[in-house]
Each structure stands twice: as structure tokens, then as C-alpha cells.
Amino acid sequence: MAETDGELARRLASETGRLLISVRPGDGDRIAQDFLAAQLEEHRPGDAVLSEEAPDDPRRLTADRVWIIDPLDGSREYAEPGRTDWAVHVALWERGELVAGAVAVPALRQSQRVAHRQPRIVVSRTRPPEFAQRVAEAIDGVLVPMGSAGAKTMAVVRGEADVYLHAGGMYEWDSAAPVYVARAAGLHTSRVDGRPLAYNQPDPWLPDLLICRPELAGVLT
């Protein structure tokens, strides 16, 4: 039986992650891109692809199905020995909606849900939003710097953090798969002001992103 789109997304994210582990600290971006491109061409040859590591193909704008991928999210962290906060993103957009997605955090071998006294807000290591501290104060929270949008999202999914807050811009491939996984886990996803997220746009730039526990969404948006 052929793989479903969800099964394919999960397999490709996992296999790409294992490949990246095996070649680390090699040229992970190129190796992961070549692998994912070949797999999608073999298993979904009729679909369009939007990838961080490939030239934008305008045919995606008239396609019904577009795979939005980030072969290695967190290249900086991947290159630093011992860091686990890098990820592989594989998502599928179909006729206006994200319909499948997977995020692999292959260097993270073990995780568990931990109770925290204060809400934990994961933010970029290098570009935390200027207003993040005000948000933390509003919910009596604490900021936790971390690399990779996928790694930050999965920290919220696993219950190790409560909010992922980003401003200053990102691309669709940075958030498509994380957003799909977050929604599947019952989390709130939106722009920071509560507006909906849109994908496969002519300009793949997204200004900001909020992923959080549903009970915090009303306070944060």
C-alpha cells in the first residue's frame, strides 16, 4: 500500500535527520536538500516544492499541492558540537491549507514533560523579539533562548515550554511543518496579533509567529 502524505512526511523528516547525524558536521544543508528533493521526485513527482535550499519555482503558485521543506533548520546549531536544537521540516500545503507535516529533532534522544513554576517562552538565540520581555512580564514567564523554529515548536509540543514567540521575520519553510505539528497537538498557532497564518504565498516571507498553549492565546494576542 502506498504511503499517505502524513506517513511520507514523517518518514522523510526522520530519514533526513538520521542522514544529517551520520554526516555531521558536514555540508548538511546540501546533503539534506539533495536527499529530500530526490525522495519527493520519486514518491510525489507531480507535486511542487518550496524549499529554503532551492530556487523558488513560480509554478508552485498555480499548483494544488506544494511541499514546503526546510532540509536543515538551525544550520548554526548543527555546526556547533553538542547542540540538539536543530531540526528537519517537511510539510504539505494543498489548496490553501497545511494538510500534512512532520518535524524531526534528531539530535534530541530523550525528552520528558516537566512542570515549571513559570511559563517558559522560547525565543531565538540570535534575534529575540524586542517586546519578548514585556510578554514574559505579562504572564510572569521566563525567556528561554533556543535555535531552530522546529526545535522551539517541539519544546512546546513536548510540554518543556509553553510559548514560542518570534518576530523580525521568517520564511514559510521555517514554520509550515512546525505549525502543522503544533495544530495536531492542539496548540494555538497564529501571527503575534492573532491573525491567521497563510502559506504558499507569492512572497514566502512571514513577519512573525506565535505558538502557545490554548489557554495563553487570549492573553498573548
UniProtKB/TrEMBL annotation:
GO terms for biological process: 3'-phosphoadenosine 5'-phosphosulfate metabolic process; sulfate assimilation. Mg(2+) binds at E52, D70, L72, D73, D174. Keywords: Magnesium, Metal-binding. GO terms for molecular function: 3'(2'),5'-bisphosphate nucleotidase activity; metal ion binding. SUPFAM superfamilies: Carbohydrate phosphatase (SSF56655). Its cofactor is Mg(2+). It comes from the Bacteria. It holds the Pfam family Inositol_P. This is 3'(2'),5'-bisphosphate nucleotidase CysQ.
